[in-house]
Amino acid sequence: MKRFRRHGQESHRDRIKQELYGFNKTVEHGFPHQPSALVFSPSLQLLAIGTRSGAIKLYGAPGVEFMGLHDENAAVTQVHFLPQQVDLVTLLDDNSLHMWTLRAHQGVSELLEIGRFTLTGPPGAPPSVTRVTAVLTHSSGDLLFLGTEGGHVFVVEVPGFRELEESNISLENVTNSLPEDYGGRRSLEHVESLQENPVNPRQVLIGYGRGIMVIWDLERQSAIKHIPATQQLESVWWTEDGDHVLSSHSDGSYCRWMVAGEGTQSEQEKSEVPYGHFPCKAISKIIQLPTEQGPPFLFLSGGMPRASYGDRHCISVIHSKTHVALDFTSRIIDFFVIRDGPDYTGDPSALVVLVEEELVVIDLQTEGWPVIQTPYLVPLHCSAITCSHHVSAIPLKLWEKVLSAGALQNTHYSKKPWPITGGQNLSPDAPQRDLLLTGHEDGTVRFWDASGVCLYPMYKLSTAGVFLTDAEPNDNMNQCTEGEWPPFRKVGCFDPYSDDPRLGVQKIHLCKYSGYLTVAGTAGQILVLELNDEAAEQTVEATVADLLQGQEGFRWKGHTRLEVKEEPVMFPPGFQPFALVQCQPPAVVTALTLHSDWKLVTFGTSHGFGLYDYQQKSNVLVRCTLNPSDQLAMEGPLSRVKSIKKSLRQSFRRIRRSRVSLRKHHVNNAAKVQEANARLEAELAEMELAPVQRKIAARSSDDSFTGLVRMLYFADTFLSDSSHHTPSLWAGTNGGSVFAYQLRLPPVERRAEDPVTAHPAKEIQLMHRAPVVGIVVLDGLGSPLPEPLEVAHDLARSADMQGCHQLLVISEEQFKVFTLPKVSAKMKLKLTAIDGSRVRRVGVAWFGSSRSEDYGESGLTVLTNQGDLHVVSLPGVKLQVQYPCIRREDVSGIASCVFTKHGQGFYLISPSEFERFSLSARCVVEPRSLVEVPSQTPSTTLPRAQPDGPSVEHRNSTRDTDDVAVLQEIQKSLEGYQPTFLENNVKSALAGGKVLTNGD
Amino acid sequence: MNKNHRVPSNRTLGAVEVKSKFGAEFRRFSLDRFKPGRFDEFYRLLQHMHRIPNVDLLVGYADVHGDLLPINNDDNYRKAISVADPVLRLFLQRKEEADYSAFGLDSLTRPKKTVLAAMLLRPDANRKKPPVIISLPRDFRPVSSIIDVDILPETHRRVRLYKHGQEKPLGFYIRDGSSVRVTPQGLEKVPGIFISRMVPGGLAEGTGLLAVNDEVLEVNGIEVQAKSLDQVTDMMIANSHNLIVTVKPANQRNNIVRSGGGGAASRSSGHSSDSGTSFYGYSSPGTAVATTPAHIIQNFHPEELESDEDDEDLVVEVDGEAVPIPRASSASCTIPFIPRYVPHLDLRTTNEALASRNNAGSLGTLSTADRSLEGRSLEEDGTVITL
């Protein structure tokens, strides 16, 4: 019986755990790493992006997001929506085709892979015969045309992927239909482009690599016209009226061909090299769209003069007399144009360009074609992210101030609403306002609205203005000068080149109640900023904190201190710096905390830590933690070794970028280069690991960087006796030491005059000498002490000062609770001794129960070096749950992790993407959206749609018929199209079960 | 004890010549070989002869092999008299400053005078290759032991290394490798962790229980299977104060019954799978020192090993009192900013550099105290035996 009861208790606790904790990776914020394909569905108003890692992401209206991942680890080279459906087809680098669909489940759509297919050629044929180079999703919605490297076009029925061999258009058939003098003996090369006649779905244009294009009649199975282009073909566009075909070529030219006539050969109407005279690079894509009144819009990608601007990534937009070459900072992947009108067939309204590092949307209907700010896919990495800081539950006042400061920075953006509107966002409104702050290499801090599914940029703070740097502010060489040709216009914000690496932001701390912000950087600079609605001109006073304290034998080999501008600087509305501390030696700041109630900032480096009173602008305390036997810390910056590796990697990347884009099939090439690159990196990594043996030796006090300050913490607690609580400062080092200082603050009325003093009170040396990564004081009830000013704003229960306080010291290896004021070990949780993992990141969080509104527990959220997430209970320090989260090899992912106060977290899955996860069962932010099957035919004026009814019928009835019958059926349906709304509706109602009814 | 071990050449003589040395002074006297009397009488006689009536003494004698052996009871007193050949050479030491390390036995392979010389010259504890020495039985402290012989398969060995806060490194390296396991599907190659290198003079090498290419199966009772090399490294380091490693020795020949030679060891446990303790090298028969190496711990449970040794975190309070954390043994330290603390032990740590900056305060001082602590605990606990 006893055993049963005990079991019952355990299951009770298990149930509570289930109500408190649950692990989910919920949403990826930011911009996909290495995008490789882009497509847009006008009928769904959804945008799809494929990446080199095999991910596929769909975006619609803000908040509508879907993500899928191919099992194969191959790059997505093409993505195509099936017209008028919620299905899409992806082509991977390994030549496999995949069918995805958005299926509604319990009112929310999910992206699911429902089929895969690889083209098989005749036995003995070389692989190039079936290597797919071009895909056309026919407007009928159930046919795929696959052009291959061998020059053949295969026809496949979807969604079941059934090959319709009789419909295939072989290279021989095409060659035979060409006049002798064009066919010649030379090969037509691969199929570069497949286009359907916008007004006649029976006609398909096949563009071959060598330049020749053939218009093929699907019904008659023969070529009806050919276009005798002679230059290497890059892309083809069939104008909306079906009368003209535009072709772009590798020599930077484009041609317009008349195809409406009766003859078998098309006339070239126009051939132009837009940036002519000298040799030009290829025009990789061409689009021409009409406007209701006036001339059409022409969009060209590439075509720049090879010698002078060959390295530019440009899209030219030509409309009437306006001609702009949009100059992007990274390689263009693809672009499309969104059109106005109920059927999305009106005037072009926005140009959407996917470049390698960001998505840029240009408003084509506002004068000057301004950029529309993206609500998602934001380039988090426009300068490399160096740190992040999350603040939960921002008071409305601060939120509005930050928003208004941000609005003043965004005046150059278009006022138009976001043009991509597909799907319905069903997520509930965010329960609170959360801010994510990211620090960047160029010295900026970006504020992101992290409350919901969309990580929306709010405000950008630059700290570089305080310092003198080499870069002149206005040496922008891309300033448009009058009459310049080509007419460049710089667009996009991705700019990975930092003027001065010392500006890099390393630590951020924001007090959400007072609006005080402190930002610390690579060169030991600590700025204190306050929020101001008005622009202000002021000088920032610098105070030097000598952390060496006369330590002898020290040689600093690292960078020098940043020079501060002596004249007053104009600061725009927003966060404005008013105080600056510069550490000497100017080592990277490794710990930073601000206490807005006491008006103190504490900071630490590898040499020691300091306490700064930002009201009186004076140092209160400086303490050296250096171990004289620690040579590394004595010499220079931490990142010395790493930076070599980093610069190596960057140069590889640069080489790769320059090689890419020479040829159209860059994805293949790029993938190859990338593969080689990855191999090289892996080899490098292996070299770094050598020797593959590990020494077993206990840590000693002589190890490197024992003095590095890892943790700084303010607490109002019982430090010296159990009757008086006083302000205190706690510091933890890499060598397992904890220093505690008792702080004496003058009374409020004398705060500006009397000095703040700090007295050493305690030192603890953990015997296991592991780095201290967290210090928390627990109040009499075992809860973590509230944040400064939290109680004053009635947002937290004040700390219990009756019971005994406890000190929780978290090292990389153990969680240890000590009593206060007399420090004696009370309990501990050993992590490393048990499972060999070490604590990398730790945070204090409140876990609300998903079952009852008023129950919750405090806990520690822990990320280990194995990439596992743990929750450790407070104050009992017991392991509650454990979930694998990040690959253990993903060191930068683990290092970038930041926890929220409500059991969520973020980590970088690539330089440009944050993965959001949740450990809380109650607090989950995830996309919930619904996409419905378009229920209308796209247009009644353009009879391109064909009835789906017969096809459905045929699918249901021809289970056992052979391919000939199927083909005939299709042809019949192609011939006699009679658009009926009813049938379409029937079809959409059947859409759910369609997959299964494929005759097979 | 084998009294007929060696026949003294002049046993017909009734008197035993005694040459007693205390400090720099010698005393000579004689005893009746056949009526030696009791040890306490002999002890008082020595005090009287040297005129040190109130000094506690440690009495040792040199036996025929040149080993310095203690005289502290009637048995070994009588033995000492019986083997005197013809001179009984005694060495007296003050108990409080006794150098236990001088006691020990030596095999005949070693030059006779080594131990004596070692003692007379006040041997440097830091010498690279200390002679094989042995302390008084009550001062034995294990540096390693084989545990759980009754529950482990014979092919495995569970070794416990006692670090005791000494400076000596654990002294081995581990690597990744693969081993062959028998599974229901037949033989299977699985990744494993192996000892790759032993540091000469390190604790691990000294025990003789671990060897290169031994496969590491467990660390402190936790299987290392499916753990990465780095994880296992971290586990070992985190447990370094009390490390228990279960290995599958590369050399399986030592697993079988050990007979004869290891008399002392096999006596302690009649179990056939016992492969000896840290003392198994002990092979001199008929020695006067009775060693009882009963450090074989049976039925090992990981939780029992939850040693508090790593709880000896140092806490320094502001009032300058050296306050050890409760449960800590003898941890003591001073606050760094009050240079009152003077290491009161004859430490040979390299503190010259640190001493100069005591006033600056900070970790430097802390580590001074820290090392002094380690040094003292070493002395208090007596000499650690290394074989």
Automatic annotation (TrEMBL), chain A:
One of its GO terms (biological process) is regulation of Notch signaling pathway. Its main location: cytoplasm. It comes from the Eukaryota. Gene3D superfamilies: YVTN repeat-like/Quinoprotein amine dehydrogenase. One of its GO terms (molecular function) is myosin II binding. Residues 934-943 have a biased composition (Polar residues). WD repeats lie at residues 431-449. It holds the Pfam family LLGL. Residues 932-963 are annotated as: Disordered. Residues 663-690 form a coiled coil. Residues 951-962 have a biased composition (Basic and acidic residues). Residues 272-370 form the Lethal giant larvae homologue domain. InterPro entries: Lethal2_giant (IPR000664), LLGL2 (IPR013577), WD40/YVTN_repeat-like_dom_sf (IPR015943), WD40_repeat_dom_sf (IPR036322), WD40_rpt (IPR001680). Keywords: Cell cycle, Coiled coil, Cytoplasm, Exocytosis, Phosphoprotein, Repeat, WD repeat. One of its GO terms (cellular component) is plasma membrane. It is found in: Cytoplasm. PANTHER family: LETHAL 2 GIANT LARVAE PROTEIN, LLGL SCRIBBLE CELL POLARITY COMPLEX COMPONENT 2. Belongs to the WD repeat L(2)GL family. This is LLGL scribble cell polarity complex component 2.
UniProtKB/TrEMBL annotation, chain B:
Residues 265-278 have a biased composition (Low complexity). One of its GO terms (cellular component) is apical plasma membrane. Belongs to the PAR6 family. Pfam families: PB1, PDZ. Keywords: Cell cycle, Cell division, Cell junction, Cell membrane, Cytoplasm, Membrane, Tight junction. Residues 15-95 form the PB1 domain. Gene3D superfamilies: 2.30.42.10, Phosphatidylinositol 3-kinase Catalytic Subunit, Chain A, domain 1. This is Par-6 partitioning defective 6 homolog beta (C. elegans). Its main location: other. InterPro entries: PAR6_homolog, PB1-like, PB1_dom, PB1_Par6, PDZ, PDZ_sf. Transmembrane segments: none annotated. Residues 255-279 are annotated as: Disordered. GO terms for biological process: cell division; centrosome cycle; establishment or maintenance of cell polarity; regulation of cellular localization. The keyword Cell cycle applies. The keyword Phosphoprotein does not apply. The lineage of its organism: Eukaryota, Metazoa, Chordata, Craniata, Vertebrata. SUPFAM superfamilies: CAD & PB1 domains, PDZ domain-like. Residues 158-251 form the PDZ domain. It is found in: Cell junction, Tight junction; Cell membrane; Cytoplasm.
